[in-house]
From TrEMBL:
The name this protein goes by in its record: Glycoside hydrolase 18 protein
PANTHER family: PEROXISOMAL MULTIFUNCTIONAL ENZYME TYPE 2 (PTHR13078:SF56), PEROXISOMAL MULTIFUNCTIONAL ENZYME TYPE 2-RELATED (PTHR13078)
Residues annotated as domain Peroxisomal multifunctional enzyme type 2-like N-terminal: 24-157
CDD domains: HDE_HSD
Domain of life: Eukaryota
GO MF terms held by the record: hydrolase activity
Span of domain MaoC-like: 195-294
Region (Disordered): 162-181
Length: 310
């Protein structure tokens, strides 16, 4: 493992690593399957604010796409993590730590996306290494920039490689480490409760994250969980849907950027309570699991404009 006393690990080749460009091609079926995977239409099947993500409504030519669908564009990078020079880690102990998304234009209902990925950060946390990857995505045909995803991966057991007494920490540009606003002490502006289904992770994985942590009981046990856990990005999808529904009056195009830190795992079948506070055009949110009364995700969403409903 990088760290664990492995003083040979040199972080420099990792931070200068160049990932090959990758393509992600999707159809409306993929966008609809994703929407179902993050709970769209599961609560109120006839909710016309969400039907548009899975069905051509009112003779519309195309379905609409949730902004968090863009997180799938980066999935191809996961297979390249183990090729990072010198960075050794146990993939069974990998957890998704954070996600930051910027949306530059509404996501098309189908298309071919060109992704350019790079290392945005590397942090030695002693008991873990936090690796940040940034993926900028372009519509292949027009070359237009569509969105940016920056994710932090928490590699348990892979830290402790710093050679000096100061823990190694590298961040390119604005890293999303430590940029999270405090959860206000005041009552939330709105609270939205929604159950995940026992098969939620099995449905969500069909969108492309086949990590057995979310489907294989033995793998989950080795990773330290009593049973398979929900994908972090599935929980984030639920939270952003709640914000679109409660604050944006169902208009997904109001979302400009999304930030989230995964605080604790979620088990499929648990109930998610999303608490939201509005501060100008920023929505601060926190997701709690009702059954365990624990916060599992927190962050903020910046809107293109204030909702006229506020
Ligand atoms: C390229 C495509 C790749 C795709 C990747 C995604 C693959 C997916 O299939 C995997 C998943 O979806 S996993 C499920 C979602 N994630 C989770 O459930 C993790 C939930 N969080 C935790 O368990 C803990 O916060 C935990 C364990 C993360 C941290 O808890 P602790 O060990 O108690 O940490 P703590 O002592 O509080 O802090 C240590 C230092 O680490 C920083 N940190 C803490 N939580 C972090 C987090 N979530 N993300 C990033 N950094 C984090 C702290 O700031 C601290 O650093 P410092 O000492 O410098 O302050």
């Amino acid at each position: 493992m990088a760290g664990s006393g492995n003083s040979e690990f040199d972080p420099e080749p990792v931070i200068s690593h160049k990932f090959p460009e990758s393509l992600y091609t999707y159809t409306e079926r993929d966008a609809a399957l994703y929407a179902l995977g993050v709970g769209a239409c599961a609560k109120d099947a006839i909710d016309d604010k969400e039907l548009k993500y899975v069905y051509h409504q009112d003779g519309q030519e195309f379905i609409q796409v949730l902004p968090t669908f863009s997180t799938l564009f980066s999935l191809g990078v996961s297979s390249q993590l183990e090729q990072l020079p010198g960075l050794q880690f146990d993939p069974r102990l990998l957890l998704h730590g954070q996600q930051y998304i910027e949306i530059y234009k509404p996501l098309p209902s189908h298309g071919c996306i060109l992704n350019k990925a790079s290392i945005a950060g590397l942090h030695d946390k002693g008991k873990a290494t936090v690796l940040e990857i940034e993926i900028v995505s372009y519509e292949k045909e027009s070359g237009e920039r569509l969105c940016m995803n920056r994710l932090a991966i928490y590699l348990r057991g892979a830290g402790g490689f710093s050679k000096s007494s100061q823990p190694y920490s590298y961040s390119r540009n604005r890293s999303n480490q430590s940029t999270f606003p405090k959860i206000p002490k005041s009552q939330p502006f709105v609270v939205y409760e929604e159950c995940t289904h026992a098969s939620q992770a099995l449905l969500y994985r069909l969108s492309g994250d086949y990590n057995p942590l979310h489907s294989d009981p033995m793998f989950a046990e080795i990773a330290g969980f009593s049973r398979p856990i929900l994908h972090g990005l599935c929980t984030l999808g639920f939270a952003v849907r709640a914000i679109i529904k409660c604050i944006c009056r169902g208009d997904q195009n109001m979302i400009k950027s999304i930030s989230g830190r995964f605080l604790l795992h979620v088990y499929p079948g648990e109930t998610l309570i999303t608490e939201m506070w509005v501060a100008g055009s920023r929505v601060i949110y926190q997701v709690k699991v009702k059954e365990r009364n624990r916060a599992v995700l927190s962050g903020f969403v910046d809107l293109n404009r204030l909702s006229s409903s506020l």
